Amino acid sequence: MNAFAYRDGYYHAQDVAIRHIADAVGTPFYCYSRAAIEARYDAFADALKDFNALICYAVKANSNQALIGLLAARGAGADVVSEGEMRRALAAGIPASKIVYSGVAKTVHEIEFALQQNIRQFNVESEQELRAISAAATRLKKTARVAFRINPNVDAGTHEKISTGKSENKFGIGIDNAKAAYDEARKLPGIEVCGVDMHIGSQIMTLNPFKAAFSRIAELTQELRDAGHTISTIDLGGGLGVNYDNLNDNAPTVNDYARVAKEAVGHLDCDIIVEPGRSLVGNAGVLVGSVIYTKTNGASKFLIIDAAMNDFLRPSMYNAYHTIVGGRQSNAPEEFYDVVGPVCETGDTFARKRKLPLQEAGDLIIIEGTGAYGSVMASSYNTRPMIPEVLVDGSEFRVIRRRPDYDSMIALDIPWGNSD
Q: For position 163, what pLDDT does the model report?
Protein backbone atom coordinates (compact mmCIF):
# COMPACT_ATOMS: atom_id res chain seq x y z
CA MET A 1 0.00 0.00 0.00
CA ASN A 2 1.05 3.61 -0.52
CA ALA A 3 0.63 5.23 2.89
CA PHE A 4 2.35 8.45 1.82
CA ALA A 5 0.71 10.66 -0.81
CA TYR A 6 -0.45 14.16 -1.58
CA ARG A 7 -3.97 15.16 -0.61
CA ASP A 8 -5.40 18.57 -1.41
CA GLY A 9 -1.90 19.61 -2.39
CA TYR A 10 -0.19 18.60 0.87
CA TYR A 11 1.91 15.54 1.69
CA HIS A 12 0.13 13.11 4.04
CA ALA A 13 1.01 10.04 6.05
CA GLN A 14 -2.21 8.05 5.90
CA ASP A 15 -4.84 10.60 7.03
CA VAL A 16 -2.44 13.02 8.74
CA ALA A 17 -0.85 15.99 7.01
CA ILE A 18 2.91 15.91 7.50
CA ARG A 19 2.84 19.67 8.14
CA HIS A 20 0.57 19.02 11.13
CA ILE A 21 3.14 16.62 12.61
CA ALA A 22 6.00 19.01 11.87
CA ASP A 23 4.19 21.81 13.70
CA ALA A 24 3.73 19.52 16.73
CA VAL A 25 7.17 17.91 17.06
CA GLY A 26 9.52 20.06 14.98
CA THR A 27 11.81 18.92 12.20
CA PRO A 28 13.67 16.79 11.41
CA PHE A 29 11.78 13.62 12.36
CA TYR A 30 11.01 10.13 11.12
CA CYS A 31 7.41 9.22 10.37
CA TYR A 32 6.14 5.64 10.02
CA SER A 33 2.82 4.21 8.88
CA ARG A 34 1.26 1.47 11.00
CA ALA A 35 -1.00 0.37 8.16
CA ALA A 36 1.93 0.01 5.74
CA ILE A 37 3.95 -2.14 8.16
CA GLU A 38 1.03 -4.41 9.00
CA ALA A 39 0.01 -4.75 5.35
CA ARG A 40 3.52 -5.76 4.37
CA TYR A 41 3.73 -8.36 7.15
CA ASP A 42 0.34 -9.76 6.13
CA ALA A 43 1.56 -10.04 2.54
CA PHE A 44 4.51 -12.17 3.70
CA ALA A 45 2.26 -14.32 5.87
CA ASP A 46 -0.17 -14.90 3.02
CA ALA A 47 2.57 -15.71 0.50
CA LEU A 48 4.11 -18.27 2.88
CA LYS A 49 0.84 -19.85 4.05
CA ASP A 50 1.67 -23.17 2.38
CA PHE A 51 4.80 -23.49 4.55
CA ASN A 52 5.06 -24.04 8.27
CA ALA A 53 6.79 -20.67 8.31
CA LEU A 54 7.99 -18.30 11.02
CA ILE A 55 8.54 -14.72 9.89
CA CYS A 56 11.34 -13.34 12.05
CA TYR A 57 11.62 -9.58 11.68
CA ALA A 58 15.26 -8.50 11.28
CA VAL A 59 15.42 -6.05 14.17
CA LYS A 60 18.55 -4.35 12.83
CA ALA A 61 16.39 -2.68 10.15
CA ASN A 62 14.53 -0.57 12.71
CA SER A 63 14.67 -1.42 16.40
CA ASN A 64 11.99 0.93 17.75
CA GLN A 65 9.96 -1.15 20.18
CA ALA A 66 6.68 0.31 18.96
CA LEU A 67 7.31 -1.16 15.51
CA ILE A 68 8.56 -4.46 16.90
CA GLY A 69 5.42 -4.58 19.04
CA LEU A 70 3.16 -4.12 16.01
CA LEU A 71 4.82 -7.09 14.35
CA ALA A 72 4.77 -9.17 17.54
CA ALA A 73 1.00 -8.68 17.74
CA ARG A 74 0.81 -9.98 14.15
CA GLY A 75 2.65 -13.18 15.15
CA ALA A 76 6.18 -12.27 14.06
CA GLY A 77 9.36 -13.58 15.60
CA ALA A 78 12.67 -11.72 15.61
CA ASP A 79 16.08 -12.13 14.03
CA VAL A 80 18.58 -10.38 16.32
CA VAL A 81 22.32 -9.76 16.12
CA SER A 82 23.11 -8.56 19.64
CA GLU A 83 21.98 -8.90 23.24
CA GLY A 84 20.57 -5.39 23.01
CA GLU A 85 18.35 -6.30 20.08
CA MET A 86 17.26 -9.44 21.89
CA ARG A 87 16.28 -7.42 24.93
CA ARG A 88 14.33 -5.01 22.73
CA ALA A 89 12.48 -7.88 21.06
CA LEU A 90 11.60 -9.48 24.39
CA ALA A 91 10.48 -6.15 25.85
CA ALA A 92 8.27 -5.55 22.79
CA GLY A 93 6.44 -8.83 23.32
CA ILE A 94 8.19 -11.33 21.05
CA PRO A 95 8.54 -14.64 22.92
CA ALA A 96 11.99 -16.18 23.19
CA SER A 97 10.66 -19.24 21.36
CA LYS A 98 10.40 -17.06 18.23
CA ILE A 99 13.86 -15.46 18.44
CA VAL A 100 16.81 -16.52 16.30
CA TYR A 101 20.23 -15.13 17.14
CA SER A 102 22.57 -14.28 14.25
CA GLY A 103 25.86 -12.37 14.10
CA VAL A 104 29.53 -13.20 13.65
CA ALA A 105 30.84 -12.12 17.06
CA LYS A 106 28.53 -13.37 19.80
CA THR A 107 30.33 -12.95 23.13
CA VAL A 108 30.20 -15.49 25.92
CA HIS A 109 28.04 -13.12 27.97
CA GLU A 110 25.59 -12.73 25.08
CA ILE A 111 25.49 -16.47 24.48
CA GLU A 112 24.72 -17.10 28.15
CA PHE A 113 21.96 -14.50 28.13
CA ALA A 114 20.37 -16.11 25.07
CA LEU A 115 20.59 -19.58 26.64
CA GLN A 116 18.92 -18.31 29.80
CA GLN A 117 16.02 -17.00 27.71
CA ASN A 118 15.65 -20.36 25.90
CA ILE A 119 15.64 -18.78 22.45
CA ARG A 120 14.51 -20.80 19.45
CA GLN A 121 17.84 -21.01 17.63
CA PHE A 122 21.44 -19.83 17.37
CA ASN A 123 22.56 -19.21 13.79
CA VAL A 124 26.19 -20.26 14.25
CA GLU A 125 28.81 -18.56 12.07
CA SER A 126 32.06 -20.39 12.94
CA GLU A 127 33.41 -23.52 14.57
CA GLN A 128 34.92 -21.44 17.39
CA GLU A 129 31.51 -19.95 18.11
CA LEU A 130 30.02 -23.45 18.18
CA ARG A 131 32.51 -24.52 20.84
CA ALA A 132 31.79 -21.38 22.89
CA ILE A 133 28.07 -22.13 22.77
CA SER A 134 28.69 -25.74 23.78
CA ALA A 135 30.82 -24.69 26.75
CA ALA A 136 28.26 -22.11 27.91
CA ALA A 137 25.37 -24.53 27.53
CA THR A 138 27.24 -27.16 29.54
CA ARG A 139 27.98 -24.69 32.34
CA LEU A 140 24.36 -23.59 32.49
CA LYS A 141 22.97 -27.12 32.05
CA LYS A 142 21.11 -25.96 28.95
CA THR A 143 20.70 -27.29 25.45
CA ALA A 144 21.43 -24.88 22.61
CA ARG A 145 19.45 -25.40 19.41
CA VAL A 146 21.73 -24.46 16.52
CA ALA A 147 21.75 -24.05 12.78
CA PHE A 148 24.94 -23.25 10.93
CA ARG A 149 24.87 -20.17 8.76
CA ILE A 150 26.10 -21.47 5.46
CA ASN A 151 27.89 -19.19 3.04
CA PRO A 152 26.81 -20.57 -0.36
CA ASN A 153 29.25 -18.35 -2.32
CA VAL A 154 26.45 -16.67 -4.27
CA ASP A 155 26.81 -13.13 -5.56
CA ALA A 156 23.58 -11.33 -4.65
CA GLY A 157 24.33 -8.54 -7.13
CA THR A 158 23.94 -5.89 -4.45
CA HIS A 159 26.20 -3.18 -3.00
CA GLU A 160 29.54 -4.57 -1.83
CA LYS A 161 28.95 -3.28 1.70
CA ILE A 162 25.72 -5.26 2.12
CA SER A 163 26.76 -8.45 0.34
CA THR A 164 27.08 -11.36 2.79
CA GLY A 165 26.94 -14.57 0.76
CA LYS A 166 30.23 -14.61 -1.15
CA SER A 167 33.29 -16.52 -0.03
CA GLU A 168 35.24 -13.31 0.65
CA ASN A 169 32.57 -12.03 3.06
CA LYS A 170 33.02 -12.48 6.80
CA PHE A 171 29.71 -14.24 7.30
CA GLY A 172 28.95 -17.90 7.78
CA ILE A 173 30.73 -21.18 7.15
CA GLY A 174 31.77 -22.04 3.61
CA ILE A 175 29.44 -24.59 2.09
CA ASP A 176 32.39 -26.90 1.35
CA ASN A 177 33.16 -27.03 5.09
CA ALA A 178 29.56 -27.53 6.21
CA LYS A 179 29.58 -31.31 6.67
CA ALA A 180 32.67 -31.19 8.87
CA ALA A 181 31.06 -28.50 11.03
CA TYR A 182 27.88 -30.53 11.46
CA ASP A 183 29.91 -33.63 12.30
CA GLU A 184 31.70 -31.70 15.05
CA ALA A 185 28.42 -30.31 16.39
CA ARG A 186 27.02 -33.83 16.74
CA LYS A 187 29.83 -34.72 19.13
CA LEU A 188 29.66 -31.66 21.38
CA PRO A 189 27.73 -31.56 24.68
CA GLY A 190 24.88 -29.10 25.09
CA ILE A 191 24.26 -28.83 21.34
CA GLU A 192 21.15 -29.85 19.43
CA VAL A 193 21.48 -29.44 15.68
CA CYS A 194 18.12 -28.41 14.29
CA GLY A 195 18.67 -26.74 10.95
CA VAL A 196 20.50 -24.92 8.22
CA ASP A 197 20.66 -21.13 7.85
CA MET A 198 21.71 -18.74 5.08
CA HIS A 199 21.58 -15.04 4.29
CA ILE A 200 23.26 -13.75 1.14
CA GLY A 201 22.84 -10.00 1.44
CA SER A 202 20.45 -7.09 1.46
CA GLN A 203 18.47 -5.09 -1.08
CA ILE A 204 18.40 -7.94 -3.62
CA MET A 205 16.43 -6.85 -6.68
CA THR A 206 16.31 -10.07 -8.69
CA LEU A 207 15.20 -13.61 -7.90
CA ASN A 208 18.21 -15.33 -9.47
CA PRO A 209 20.50 -15.09 -6.40
CA PHE A 210 17.74 -16.56 -4.22
CA LYS A 211 17.21 -19.41 -6.70
CA ALA A 212 20.90 -20.27 -6.69
CA ALA A 213 21.33 -20.03 -2.92
CA PHE A 214 18.12 -21.89 -2.04
CA SER A 215 19.04 -24.71 -4.42
CA ARG A 216 22.48 -25.10 -2.84
CA ILE A 217 20.96 -25.13 0.65
CA ALA A 218 18.42 -27.75 -0.43
CA GLU A 219 21.19 -29.98 -1.79
CA LEU A 220 23.20 -29.54 1.39
CA THR A 221 20.17 -30.37 3.55
CA GLN A 222 19.70 -33.66 1.75
CA GLU A 223 23.40 -34.48 2.02
CA LEU A 224 23.33 -33.79 5.76
CA ARG A 225 20.27 -35.95 6.24
CA ASP A 226 21.92 -38.74 4.29
CA ALA A 227 24.85 -38.45 6.71
CA GLY A 228 22.50 -38.95 9.66
CA HIS A 229 21.93 -35.35 10.76
CA THR A 230 18.47 -34.19 11.80
CA ILE A 231 17.59 -31.11 9.77
CA SER A 232 14.08 -29.96 10.63
CA THR A 233 14.39 -26.22 9.92
CA ILE A 234 15.70 -24.19 7.01
CA ASP A 235 16.30 -20.50 7.67
CA LEU A 236 16.26 -18.74 4.30
CA GLY A 237 17.39 -15.38 5.69
CA GLY A 238 16.17 -12.08 4.31
CA GLY A 239 17.43 -9.66 1.69
CA LEU A 240 14.36 -9.00 -0.47
CA GLY A 241 14.77 -5.51 -1.89
CA VAL A 242 12.43 -2.53 -2.00
CA ASN A 243 11.90 0.19 -4.59
CA TYR A 244 13.58 3.41 -3.49
CA ASP A 245 12.94 5.11 -6.81
CA ASN A 246 9.24 5.76 -7.36
CA LEU A 247 9.85 5.86 -11.11
CA ASN A 248 10.56 2.14 -11.19
CA ASP A 249 8.80 -0.94 -9.88
CA ASN A 250 11.36 -3.68 -10.30
CA ALA A 251 11.66 -5.32 -6.87
CA PRO A 252 10.57 -8.98 -6.78
CA THR A 253 7.16 -9.52 -5.21
CA VAL A 254 6.70 -11.48 -2.01
CA ASN A 255 4.67 -14.04 -3.94
CA ASP A 256 7.49 -14.52 -6.45
CA TYR A 257 9.93 -14.95 -3.57
CA ALA A 258 7.68 -17.55 -1.92
CA ARG A 259 7.31 -19.41 -5.21
CA VAL A 260 11.09 -19.66 -5.60
CA ALA A 261 11.42 -20.90 -2.03
CA LYS A 262 8.73 -23.54 -2.53
CA GLU A 263 10.31 -24.79 -5.74
CA ALA A 264 13.72 -25.12 -4.07
CA VAL A 265 12.96 -26.42 -0.57
CA GLY A 266 9.26 -27.27 -0.47
CA HIS A 267 9.91 -31.00 -0.95
CA LEU A 268 12.11 -31.23 2.16
CA ASP A 269 9.22 -31.00 4.64
CA CYS A 270 11.08 -28.54 6.88
CA ASP A 271 9.91 -25.70 9.03
CA ILE A 272 10.87 -22.47 7.26
CA ILE A 273 12.21 -19.28 8.83
CA VAL A 274 12.47 -16.06 6.84
CA GLU A 275 14.07 -12.87 8.14
CA PRO A 276 12.66 -9.81 6.34
CA GLY A 277 13.72 -6.43 7.65
CA ARG A 278 13.98 -3.71 5.02
CA SER A 279 11.17 -5.31 3.01
CA LEU A 280 8.79 -4.96 5.98
CA VAL A 281 9.55 -1.41 7.09
CA GLY A 282 11.68 0.29 4.41
CA ASN A 283 8.89 1.98 2.48
CA ALA A 284 6.75 2.40 5.58
CA GLY A 285 8.75 5.42 6.73
CA VAL A 286 9.86 8.87 5.61
CA LEU A 287 12.34 11.43 6.92
CA VAL A 288 10.92 14.93 7.16
CA GLY A 289 13.16 17.99 7.23
CA SER A 290 12.85 21.72 6.67
CA VAL A 291 14.73 23.99 4.32
CA ILE A 292 17.11 26.27 6.25
CA TYR A 293 18.80 28.09 3.38
CA THR A 294 19.33 27.95 -0.36
CA LYS A 295 22.59 29.07 -1.91
CA THR A 296 24.48 28.93 -5.19
CA ASN A 297 28.17 28.10 -5.58
CA GLY A 298 29.27 28.21 -9.19
CA ALA A 299 27.03 25.88 -11.17
CA SER A 300 25.63 24.19 -8.06
CA LYS A 301 22.43 25.27 -6.34
CA PHE A 302 22.21 23.93 -2.80
CA LEU A 303 19.11 23.13 -0.82
CA ILE A 304 20.33 23.10 2.80
CA ILE A 305 17.96 21.26 5.14
CA ASP A 306 17.99 20.60 8.87
CA ALA A 307 18.27 16.81 8.49
CA ALA A 308 21.81 15.50 8.13
CA MET A 309 23.96 12.46 7.49
CA ASN A 310 23.99 11.69 11.21
CA ASP A 311 20.19 11.33 11.01
CA PHE A 312 20.19 9.26 7.82
CA LEU A 313 23.48 7.71 6.72
CA ARG A 314 22.57 5.59 3.69
CA PRO A 315 23.21 8.20 0.96
CA SER A 316 26.63 9.04 2.42
CA MET A 317 27.62 5.47 3.21
CA TYR A 318 26.23 3.61 0.19
CA ASN A 319 25.58 6.39 -2.36
CA ALA A 320 21.99 5.23 -1.94
CA TYR A 321 19.24 6.81 -4.01
CA HIS A 322 16.03 7.91 -2.27
CA THR A 323 13.11 9.78 -3.76
CA ILE A 324 12.94 13.35 -2.41
CA VAL A 325 9.79 15.47 -2.62
CA GLY A 326 8.43 18.71 -1.25
CA GLY A 327 5.88 19.01 1.49
CA ARG A 328 3.33 20.51 -0.86
CA GLN A 329 2.54 20.30 -4.54
CA SER A 330 3.60 23.38 -6.43
CA ASN A 331 3.43 24.87 -9.89
CA ALA A 332 6.62 26.83 -9.21
CA PRO A 333 9.49 26.54 -11.72
CA GLU A 334 11.70 23.52 -11.12
CA GLU A 335 15.34 23.74 -10.10
CA PHE A 336 18.17 21.22 -9.94
CA TYR A 337 19.31 21.11 -6.31
CA ASP A 338 22.08 19.44 -4.39
CA VAL A 339 20.17 18.46 -1.26
CA VAL A 340 22.57 18.71 1.69
CA GLY A 341 22.57 18.85 5.47
CA PRO A 342 24.26 21.02 8.11
CA VAL A 343 26.98 18.59 9.25
CA CYS A 344 30.55 19.74 8.59
CA GLU A 345 31.31 17.02 6.04
CA THR A 346 31.14 17.23 2.27
CA GLY A 347 29.65 13.74 2.45
CA ASP A 348 26.59 15.21 4.20
CA THR A 349 24.72 15.05 0.91
CA PHE A 350 21.38 13.35 0.23
CA ALA A 351 21.22 13.93 -3.52
CA ARG A 352 22.92 15.80 -6.32
CA LYS A 353 21.19 17.60 -9.20
CA ARG A 354 17.74 16.53 -8.01
CA LYS A 355 14.86 18.30 -9.77
CA LEU A 356 12.38 19.93 -7.37
CA PRO A 357 9.98 22.86 -7.53
CA LEU A 358 11.54 26.08 -6.30
CA GLN A 359 12.03 25.79 -2.53
CA GLU A 360 12.26 28.46 0.14
CA ALA A 361 13.33 28.58 3.78
CA GLY A 362 10.76 26.84 5.95
CA ASP A 363 9.45 24.51 3.26
CA LEU A 364 9.23 20.84 4.17
CA ILE A 365 11.39 18.29 2.37
CA ILE A 366 10.52 14.58 2.56
CA ILE A 367 13.03 11.80 1.91
CA GLU A 368 11.06 8.65 1.19
CA GLY A 369 11.85 5.01 1.88
CA THR A 370 13.67 5.67 5.16
CA GLY A 371 11.87 3.22 7.45
CA ALA A 372 14.82 0.83 7.39
CA TYR A 373 18.45 1.60 8.27
CA GLY A 374 17.56 5.19 9.12
CA SER A 375 17.05 5.80 12.81
CA VAL A 376 19.05 2.70 13.79
CA MET A 377 22.20 3.98 12.08
CA ALA A 378 21.85 7.52 13.40
CA SER A 379 24.31 9.22 15.73
CA SER A 380 24.75 12.46 17.62
CA TYR A 381 27.71 13.58 15.49
CA ASN A 382 28.33 17.35 15.78
CA THR A 383 26.39 17.06 19.09
CA ARG A 384 23.15 16.98 17.15
CA PRO A 385 20.25 15.41 19.09
CA MET A 386 18.84 12.13 17.81
CA ILE A 387 15.62 13.00 16.04
CA PRO A 388 12.09 11.97 17.05
CA GLU A 389 10.20 9.05 15.57
CA VAL A 390 6.46 9.29 15.00
CA LEU A 391 3.95 6.52 14.25
CA VAL A 392 0.79 7.33 12.31
CA ASP A 393 -2.34 5.21 12.69
CA GLY A 394 -5.19 6.44 10.49
CA SER A 395 -5.94 10.01 11.51
CA GLU A 396 -3.85 9.86 14.69
CA PHE A 397 -0.15 10.01 15.45
CA ARG A 398 2.08 9.71 18.46
CA VAL A 399 5.76 10.15 19.22
CA ILE A 400 7.46 6.78 19.73
CA ARG A 401 10.90 8.21 20.43
CA ARG A 402 11.47 11.68 21.86
CA ARG A 403 14.13 14.15 20.84
CA PRO A 404 16.63 14.45 23.75
CA ASP A 405 17.57 17.87 25.06
CA TYR A 406 21.13 19.14 25.09
CA ASP A 407 21.46 18.94 28.87
CA SER A 408 20.72 15.19 28.89
CA MET A 409 23.16 14.60 26.04
CA ILE A 410 25.99 16.52 27.70
CA ALA A 411 25.27 14.92 31.08
CA LEU A 412 26.33 11.54 29.66
CA ASP A 413 29.94 12.74 29.73
CA ILE A 414 31.92 12.56 32.97
CA PRO A 415 34.37 15.49 33.22
CA TRP A 416 37.94 14.61 34.15
CA GLY A 417 38.34 14.59 37.92
CA ASN A 418 34.61 14.10 38.55
CA SER A 419 33.96 10.64 39.96
CA ASP A 420 30.18 11.00 40.19
A: 42
